[in-house]
Amino acid sequence: MTQEKWTAVDSYITDMLLSNDPILEAVLQASNAAGLPPHNVSPNQGKLLMLLALIHQARNILEIGTLGGYSTIWLARALPTNGRLITLESNPKHAEVARENITRAGLANIIEIRVGRAVDTLAQLATSDCHPFDLIFIDADKPSNPEYFSWALKLSSKGSLIIADNVVRDGTVIEASSTDPKVQGVRRFNEMLGSEPRLTATAIQTVGSKGYDGFAIALVTSEE
Questions:
Q1: pLDDT value at position 114?
Q2: Domain coordinates of the chain in residue numbers?
Q3: Rounded to whole angstroms, how far apart are CA atoms 213 and 114?
Q4: Residues 43-65: what's their mean pLDDT?
Q5: Lowest mean pLDDT, pick from 27-36, 74-83, 126-135
Q6: What separation, in Å, do the N-terminal and C-terminal C-alpha atoms of the chain show?
Q7: pTM for this model (two decimals)
Q8: Across 176-190, average pLDDT
Q9: pLDDT at 1 over 80
Q10: Residue pair 84/131 in contact by the 8 Å Cβ criterion
């Protein structure tokens, strides 16, 4: 199996199961034109996030890592009319591109972008009445994943769903001696998932147009 075949299969799935979406295409084009890194989820992964939010009947979503707002829009499309999504972005340029994309998608009334270091904005959320969140999606800088997970637990309640992207990293996650802070951040995150008695979790490996990686999914099953 090769990256070329993985990408071709992703294209086949997208063509078969996802309708043509000019808004999301425009979001990707605007993000590329602005020079944002191509770290957004793939279309079929985006729809998976939307379906998980729909199945979970989420009304209050937190996203850690906005980038250009692509996954943000997918998640927000699952919300009811009185739903709310807060997304955190540390880079002001990325936040501005995302704001324009979200407005283009007609979702500015239910999505709020908070700009700043996520560890700071998460602390602010913890002292507000915004939580608990029904669903939290973690997709930001990987060395900080353990901190993001700790905050996600604090901002959750029994029944909350926590999803994290990029937890396999081309298989390097099994390299305990890796000096890559991204790998070590993901390893620590996975260890915390496995040892946390308040939730039940799993992770799946994925291949596709975004390469070889994986998602972790955890359900909070009890209060602290």
A1: 97
A2: 3-220
A3: 28
A4: 98
A5: 126-135
A6: 44
A7: 0.96
A8: 97
A9: no
A10: no
Q: Specify the long-range contacts of residues 115-119, CB closer than 8 Å, at least 24 apart.
A: 115/89, 115/90, 116/88, 116/90, 117/90, 118/64, 118/65, 118/88, 118/90, 118/144, 118/148, 119/144, 119/147, 119/151
User: Can you tell me the distance from the alpha carbon of 69 to that of 112, in angstroms, rounded to the nearest whole number?
Assistant: 11
Residue 131 has a pLDDT of: 85
**Number of other residues whose CB lies within 10 A of the CB of residue 119:** 15
What tokens does 212 get? 């070889």
The yes-or-no verdict on residue 27 having pLDDT over 90 is yes
Token pair of 58, please?
A: 């989420």
Q: Give the C-alpha separation, 62 to 48, whole Å.
A: 16
Question: Is CATH 3.40.50.150 what the domain over 3-220 is classified as, yes or no?
Answer: yes
Check if the beta carbon of residue 128 is closer than 8 Å to that of residue 55.
Answer: no
Cβ atoms of 180 and 223 closer than 8 Å: no
Fill in the DSSP letter of residue 42. Answer: P
